[in-house]
Design goal:
Elements: H1 6-22, H2 37-54, H3 73-80, E1 91-95, E2 99-104, E3 107-112, E4 131-136, H4 137-147, E5 159-174, E6 177-196, H5 198-207, E7 212-217, E8 224-228, E9 237-239
Antiparallel strand pairs: 1-2, 2-3, 4-6, 4-7, 5-6, 7-8, 8-9
């Protein structure tokens, strides 16, 4: 038998998968994983032709590096066209043996499932933190956003947070300038100083569903844990600290 080249083989697989989905045998079928965006581009025209021929939907994954494990909220927001938190639209999903497919509005995202046991997060999140402070989520988010205006992927710098009595001081320095802001909090932080990645801290606050949040702290090298101030909510968001220089 004459050997078949990889391109022809994968095109034949796509043809068969489109026919299977078009006939209603399976709701979806996934192509082989591509090693790079360039390799995927080689098959795009043929895959689109097969999809039109069988009348099925062709959905591509996120245009990301091959090492991407899962899309984060920013990547999904760019794909959908708006922030996911700005809509009440329901998202559908289809779970397969090795992949999961999400349908959000007119966008479809395919993710590969991780193998092995998931991290036991209950053993990682600190409990019984000695310092507990309460803050307004909106005020805290606004302060972090103002300080983070000079922080970018190019000019990365942690936000230095100093938790004092009834006040949180946030400041940062980059090559393009310095920023500082204060936010009112309830409680005494005992002048505890911690550095955080501004984006991670903002993402955690954006996910908080309540107006107020409890900030649980241990020391300058331990994570901060965001927990509900109201018993009707149940969540815990942990943000790891960034080591900062003294001064």
């Amino acid at each position: 038998m004459r050997p078949i080249d990889p391109y022809s083989y994968h095109c034949g697989v796509m043809d068969s998968f489109c026919e299977i989905v078009g006939a209603g045998v399976k709701p979806m079928a996934l192509s082989h994983p591509f090693a790079s965006p360039g390799e995927r581009a080689e098959y795009r025209e043929y895959a689109a032709k097969m999809a039109r021929q069988y009348g099925v939907l062709l959905a591509e994954g996120l245009k990301a590096a091959p090492y991407l494990i899962k899309p984060n909220e920013d990547e999904l927001s760019r794909l959908v066209g708006h922030r996911l938190t700005d809509t009440d639209e329901l998202a559908g999903f289809t779970l397969g043996p090795k992949h999961i497919l999400f349908e959000i509005g007119g966008a479809t995202v395919v993710c590969r499932l991780l193998e092995g046991e998931f991290l036991d997060w209950r053993k990682v999140v600190p409990t019984d933190c000695p310092i507990k402070l309460t803050a307004n989520v909106g005020d805290l988010s606004s302060s972090i956003s103002r300080v983070g205006l000079i922080v970018s992927e190019k000019y990365k710098s942690p936000v230095r947070c100093v938790f004092s009595d009834q006040t949180l001081l946030m400041k940062t320095n980059t090559t393009i300038g310095a920023a500082e802001d204060r936010c009112a909090i309830a409680g005494d932080g005992k002048e505890l100083e911690i550095g955080f990645n501004v984006r991670y801290l903002s993402d955690a606050l954006r996910a908080v569903p309540s107006e107020e949040v409890v900030l649980e702290l241990t020391n300058g090298l331990s994570p901060i844990v965001l927990t509900p101030a109201d018993n009707k909510y149940d969540f815990a968001y942990m943000v790891l600290p960034v080591r900062i220089k003294n001064g």
